Predict the structure.
Amino acid sequence: QSALTQPASVSGSPGQSITISCTGTSSDVGNYNLVSWYQQHPGKAPKLMIYEVNRRPSGVSNRFSASKSGNTASLTISGLQAEDEADYYCCSYAGSSTYVFGTGTKVTVL
Amino acid sequence: QVQLVQSGAEVKKPGASVKVSCKASGYTFTNYYIHWVRQAPGEGLQWMGVINASGGRTSYAQRFQDRVTMTRDTSTSTFYMELSSLRSEDTAVYYCAGELPSTSRFDSWGQGTLVTVSS
């Protein structure tokens, strides 16, 4: 199972919006509405930001939104803030009780 | 949400095995799946496998199939991940993560356990 493909880095100025893509295949992202997104600050455990493609857990800012089209999922951060600077990972169910993570994207707030 | 507390850092020699524990609290034990995810230094997250707390059924990523064993002790609400035939490339932080059955979301994470493989 190959990792989902994400851009290595994305940057934006405070207040701007950025979008991170996550490209898989018809065996994972394209076949299940079970894509989740995780935020990870340096030295910390990942934190769930989005699940089931576009649902936010309670407590996660509505500045975070997500979608999916075909084999590609996307995470958008609106109104970028300094605290959003972190690594972001997508994750998809891949069938037979297995999962695959994305390669990860470093978000930099300029 | 379940709270997950992992065992401390380990240093192992190549060829040895390591067993990392993950103690769960704050929920009904049988109501969770526990996943194991690792992260090599400077690298991304890698899903290793999952164990069903209720019946102990497991599913492993193909690349770890021959070397990983996930178990649980229902009497202590503790989960274990054992990785054998260690090599330097297994040096990583290993996380346990909790999933309510069939939600496909890892909403609770342990603090991570650093495993260093070095001769």
Notes: Chain A is about 0% helix and 45% strand. The mean pLDDT of chain A is 97.
